[in-house]
Amino acid sequence: MIAPAAFLALALLILSVPIFLVFGIGSSLVATMELHQPFTTLLQVSFGAVTKHVLLSIPLFIFAGLVMLQAGVARRLVHLSITLVGHLPGGLGIAMVLAMGFFAAFCGSILAAITAVGSILMPIMVERGYTKRFVVVLAATAGLLEALIPPSNGAIIFSALTNVPVSKTFAAGILPGFVFMALLIVYVMWACRGMPRDPRSNWGQRGQAFIAAVPGLMTPLIILGGIYSGLLTPSESASVAAAWAIVVGFLVHRELTLRGLLAALKATAIMTTVIFSIIAMATFLSVILTFTRAPQSLVAFFIEFGATPLTFLVMVGVICLLLGTFLEVVPVIYLTIPVFIAIIDHLGIDIIHFYVVFSAFVGLGLLTPPVCVGVYTAAAVIDEAPDRAFRAVPAFVMVGLIYAALMIAFPIISTWLPSML
Prior knowledge:
The protein is mostly helical and 421 residues long. The protein is built from 22 helices and no strands.
């Protein structure tokens, strides 16, 4: 029954059936017909997975980011970034990276960050002579910063699966996020060295741009300050951030309208439904893994194979790159983490180090065809054909692979901050 169910799931995936149904149909058939588990067991496991308290922060962080977008915060962050680095080679591209980093610090959605910053900066870059395909893939690649810089949905889901404190997974992504930003900036400066530069802004202009952006820049301080001071849980911190976003929109910038607030609520509901439907159905797989003892079998295989931490992390990278070509981030997490966790325990790999390496490779799935939702989202912003944008993907994938190699080679980058907590 397992083989037919796997073929059925593959067929559904090829037919573009929503991924939560692929998980649900394939796994439930195996669990009920092969393992003879009552369907009520699957429902109980699913309900337990989606009602974990830490997951409540996901819709709240998404909502905070979308309200900030409606409140004009993204536009002010973009302006601040341009005044800081617009005069450098590839200045607008560097501004894209910085603005994505700023926005990632309070938005829980990669696609929302790409849309928010990209809709403002991408048309300007195209007008200044940057090619559309370069701009599209740069926006999609810079969007990966959301997977690293807290608050990250990936970090929250990883913590929910592994019981690692969210404060540690959040902290683990900070230094790697800066490293990835630096690599992207270096590549943009080299690739765009012949592009026209903006005039250098004076310190008065930079000061005005900074003051205008202060309410948005305060949001990550509220989020991380509340968590690391011990005053707030991640969910409570997300609630405060959402409330602060509304205050900024209505009372500070005065650009948020009731229509904009309702649009943010609607978009949050849609994104949350997508994420939680995948979580609910993907947990069916955990029932199969428990009863078939697949993780224990894989541990025995790696013991016999004589695997080392290095060879295992490289293998994780290859698997994630392959899965990332046709699956999004959340399904890959639920498909692989339950198995990988048993192996890293045996090999003695630091779970925080593993999380950062895993995130690096899974994030590249946003760039690699045919799924590459990051590229499709960015391409839609400026009405560019995705197949044309694919030509610029290899260079940015190489940047991502260099970053992943650094994370494997230097675990202290990911483990130092969490070890201080």
